[in-house]
């Protein structure tokens, strides 16, 4: 295992009844990287990220997380989502899943539920507001009153409130207007530049590969191709299948 490795997965399998959604997928993520999973609908991308988070049952030969906080490798296979959050893994889920009856500030506070450092939580809330100024303007508004783009910002901000080492983003651009897609990916770059490792699941292959240090192409639940973001952007098969030629 590379001494920069943060997450290593060997032969991950996920099934829903008789349907096998993920087949023998192996991936690795190094500290400081943006790693993206791309592929068509139903390729297994979200199943992988949900398995890493402990939200679906899975089996694998290895699923190891190495926290940069202490450098100790920990098996996360079979552990519940709360244990993953405590280790330093956080997820902004597909569909945002904010609580519409709570205010922006209450949603963000909920993201820090495992923490008891009041000053740190307050500092991180200001950090989230610095990334997403519109959330600060709307901090007293209920989640249900936000636009789709603002709800996506809130979902990412909420995930950041646990102060994760590995931030996982599941379809952050889904349903957003092109100008907001550019804004969200700009913020992903900024979060990464500030030291956070990111695992990104995204249907917008062009935008995802542009920001990725490393990428995996999922085809019917298995890894079909892998390489740097730049390599896959220029791969004829990837261009034909996902980038309009």
What does this structure look like?
The protein is of the alpha/beta class and 245 residues long. The protein has a domain at 5-96 and 165-242: 3-Layer(aba) Sandwich (Rossmann fold), CATH 3.40.50.300. The protein is built from 10 helices and 10 strands. It has helices spanning 45-53, 81-87, 104-111, 118-131, 133-137, 148-160, 178-193, 205-211, 229-233, 236-242, and strands spanning 5-16, 19-30, 34-39, 62-66, 73-75, 89-92, 166-170, 197-201, 214-219, 222-227. It has a 6-stranded mixed β-sheet, with helices on both faces. Strands 2-1-4-5 form a 4-stranded antiparallel β-sheet, with helices on one face. A hairpin with a 2-residue loop joins strand 9 and strand 10. Helix 3 packs parallel to helix 6. It is globular. The mean pLDDT is 92.
With strands numbered from the N-terminus, the spatial order across the biggest sheet is 6-7-8-3-9-10
What proportion of the residues is helical, as a percent range? 25-40%
CATH topology of the domain at 5-96 and 165-242: Rossmann fold
Q: What is the H-and-E element order?
A: EEEHEEHEHHHHEHEHEEHH
- The first-level CATH class name of the domain at 5-96 and 165-242: Alpha Beta
- What is the second-level CATH architecture of the domain at 5-96 and 165-242? 3-Layer(aba) Sandwich
Amount of beta strand: 25-35%
Task: List unreliable stretches of 5+ residues.
Answer: none
Q: Major sheet, described briefly?
A: 6 strands, mixed
The CATH superfamily name of the domain at 5-96 and 165-242 is P-loop containing nucleotide triphosphate hydrolases
